[in-house]
Amino acid sequence: MRRKRVLPLAALMLCTPALAGTAPALAAAPQTAAAPAPAPAGPLRILLTNDDGYDAPGIRKAFERLTAAGHDVTIVAPLTNQSGTGTKMMSAPTITVKHPEPKVWAVDGTPGDSVAFGLAEVFAGDAPDLVVSGTNFGPNVAGLATHSGTVGGAVAALEHGVPAIALSTGGVAAPDPVTTVNAMGPTLDFAVKLIDRLRVRARSGPLLPRGVGLNVNHPVVGADGKGTAAGVAATFQDPQTLLEPDFTEAGDGTWKVAVKVDLRPAAKGGDVEAVGAGRIAVSPMNADWNTGPADHAVTSALISGLRP
Asked: What are phi and psi of 299, to 5 degrees?
């Protein structure tokens, strides 16, 4: 699975200074995606996807809320639950696509497949202004983001040069499903505000810098999940893995597999810290494997003097 590099914090602050304060200009970074088109002055055309399936509560609530905000929303999402598929894209010779109702397409594949089909066929020749992936059931912070299908759908959009936002609802210690569904309301209320902020700031330019997406994690607040978050934080992806596999040999080459949460102290300024404190974590990300100048310097020093 592809590892997504988290961009410098300045990248997000440049896009949403009223949320995060003033920051220096975004340093240039290698990019391969085509430059996104300028954002329209009015409501956006949005491709909405997820990894929980096209009929999951989160994506349906997102469709209703974004449509109510005036946006032209089309669902192009997996036919079945594809949680944890990351950036996987199938290479099968055929793919089944259903069109069960107007503005809804169900793709029998991963979130990446859904976005690829949506851009190539549903929005053929006229790319959407924005891809929104989610809202997801549960958080996609730290190592969870690396393997998240919700984030994977957003990454697929970025690879095609389309701005993207991944939305997730939940804390590291997940509450019951009903409470999480309730918390999807505040998640989407914030998403509407964030998208409106991006649209207004873009004016005649793109919604986000070229190749940059946002990974948004909204906490579950209150016993019923309907509480208001303590604030908004510009964050980065905490480097810890969170989930650790536990293998037990069962004989005949078979192993039982369990997964346990291994929560370590949160990195200061990271997404785990923010969500744990009841704040909305907004982390910039991109779709390629490039790292920063310091890492390139380390590599240059490593290979200095080496010959084939």
From this structure: -65, -40
Mean pLDDT across 148-176: 89
d(CA 143, CA 148): 9
- Phi, psi dihedrals of residue 250, rounded to the nearest 5°: -110, 0
| The pair of three-digit structure tokens given for residue 138, joined into one six-digit string | 């549960």
Closest to 137 (Cα-Cα) out of 82, 87, 79, 206: 82
- Of 234, 238, 229, nearest in space to 284 by CA: 234
What average pLDDT does the chain have?
Answer: 84
Other C-beta atoms closer than 10 Å to the C-beta of 277 total 14
Could you tell me which of 202, 167, 217, 188 has the C-alpha nearest to residue 66? 188
Residues 196, 16: Cα–Cα separation, whole Å: 11
Pair 215, 244: CB distance under 8 Å: no
The residues, any chain, with a CB within 8 Å of residue 221's CB and separated by 6 or more, are: 183, 186, 227, 228, 229, 230, 278
Which pLDDT does position 17 carry in this prediction? Answer: 31
Closest CA to 47 of 100, 97, 121, 108: 121
Predicted confidence band of residue 104 (pLDDT cuts 50, 70, 90): very high
Torsion of CA 194, 195, 198, 199, to 10 degrees: -140
Q: Report the candidate in 273, 270, 266 with the shortest Cα–Cα distance to residue 283.
A: 270
